[in-house]
Structures are given as structure tokens and as C-alpha cells.
Amino acid sequence: MIKLKHLSLIIDLKKLNAFGEKFDKRFGFDRLVVWVAYFLAAYATIFYFFSDSIVAYGDAESHLNIAKRIIHSITPGFAQLGGIWLPIPHIMMVPFVANDFLWRTGLAGSIVSGFSYVISSLYTYKLLKMLTKNKLASVFGATIFMTNPNVLYLQSTPMTEVPLLMFFTLSSYYFVRFLLDDTRLSALIAAAFFGFLATLSCLNQVIYLHRFLRQKMEDLATRDFQMKISVISLRFFHDHMNVVSMLFLKSKNQSPVASTQSTAM
């Protein structure tokens, strides 16, 4: 029981948790998080659409145009991908930029970022629930993420940060799931796969994930045979992450370090 000295508020945690369990059984917190995320995403996107802020960033317009050039340009095709940006967000936008209205207004990118926001919200809740075993605390944690003003704005734009958040959250969720049960090799493979997609979404992530995965491989390699099999899986995606990212940047005559610095400027 929590008593606040200067406020007439008493919270009985046992009753609160019991209420949470009943609510979850009847309606499902997973479903609640998804519907709240959908509502917030739609509300924020409508607000920024009518305030002409969806493509306020010059980068947002560039992301839309790169995706559009894949299907509609003098030389259409995946060779249009590039610049200093990595390709996954642009590939995700391709089905939507085919519609001129969605392309011109920036809503093509809003759909991709909004979907990524909803998935990120759901898996933030699931990750917290897996770690804390407390559903109400997990809902509270997910709510902090969902109501972050910066996230709400970015999820309404064609920027690459929210797809990055989605892939990183998915990678973290499956990696923690593997750590809690190291017989789940599929969870480790999923963590590596989503980490791989994260590094092809935003340049800021490449260096961090490289260091993170190297450290995890060193930790796992000291364990038993099952861990060594896991290391092979993790190393496969780690090495391919490096090769694909570097070749992609090389093909566009970009230095990975210079590109990361330019995005931070």
C-alpha cells in the first residue's frame, strides 16, 4: 500500500494488480495497447497533416522522393536507393508512394512510420511484461513511450527513426526472450534478423549494433555447445550486417563514418 504524505491518495497495490488481472482476462492489455497506439498515431498524423508539418524536414521529402524514384523515374529500379540513407524504410514506402496523393502529402511515409510506431508500442509492452511480470507496470511503461511528443511527431513523418525503433525493439524483445530461455534458438535468430534490418534502416544504429553484437558473441562463446551454435547464428547476421551495409555505402561512394557524421550535423 502506498500513502502520499501531502495528498489524500491511497493506492492498494494488491487490489490494483487484481483489477489489472481481471481487465487483462476480459479485454487484454495487448489489445488495449494496440488500439491506444492506433488512436494516438491517427490523431497525431491528422494534427500534423493539417498544420503542414509532415514534410517539414528536408530529409523527410528526400526519403519520399527516393522511394518514388524506384517506381517512377527515367531509370526506375532498386538502383535508385541510396544517398547517405540506408534502404529498408524506402523499400517499405514503395507500395504507398505509387499513389500520388500519398506521395505529395507525405502520408505515404506516415503510414510506414505509424505502423512501426504501433508495433514498437506493442513490443515495448511485451518486453516490459516479460522482464517485470507486472502487467500494469508494463502498460505504464508502454504509455510513456506512446505519449512521447517526439515519437508522436516522428511517427507522422517519412523519417527513418521510427522504423529503426521498431526493428530495435523487436530485436531486443527476442534477444531477452532467448536470454531467459537459451533453448529457444529461434528467438536468437529472430533477434539477429531484426537487428540486421535495424542496421539497414538508419546509419546511427550501425556502429552501436556492431559493438552490441560483438559483446554478446564474446559472452555466449564462453558457454556450452548450445551457446556455440547460437554464436554461429548470431555471427552469421552480424557479418552479413557489416558486409551489406558497407557494400551498400560503397556502391553509393559514401564513407560509413562520414555518412554517420553528416546525419548528426
Keywords:
265 residues, mainly alpha, two-stranded antiparallel sheet, 2 strands, globular
Notes on the structure:
This protein is mostly helical and 265 residues long. It has 2 domains: 28-159, no CATH class; 160-265, no CATH class. 75% of the residues lie in helices and 2% in strands. The chain is built from 13 helices and 2 strands, in the order E-E-H-H-H-H-H-H-H-H-H-H-H-H-H. Helix 2 runs antiparallel to helix 6 and helix 10 (185-199) runs parallel beside helix 12. The radius of gyration is 21 Å and the shape is globular. The N and C termini lie far apart (49 Å). Mean pLDDT is 77; it is low at 1-9 and 254-265.
Question: How are the strands ordered across the major sheet?
Answer: 1-2
Which structural class matches the secondary elements? mainly alpha
Which outline best applies?
A: globular
Compute the separation of the termini in Å: 49 Å
What percent of the residues sit in helical stretches (DSSP H or I)?
over 70%
- Total domains, how many? 2
Q: Can you tell me the residue ranges where pLDDT is under 50 for at least 5 consecutive residues?
A: 1-9, 254-265
- Gyration radius from CA atoms, angstroms: 21 Å
Total beta strand runs: 2
Write down the secondary-structure element order: EEHHHHHHHHHHHHH
Mean pLDDT: 77
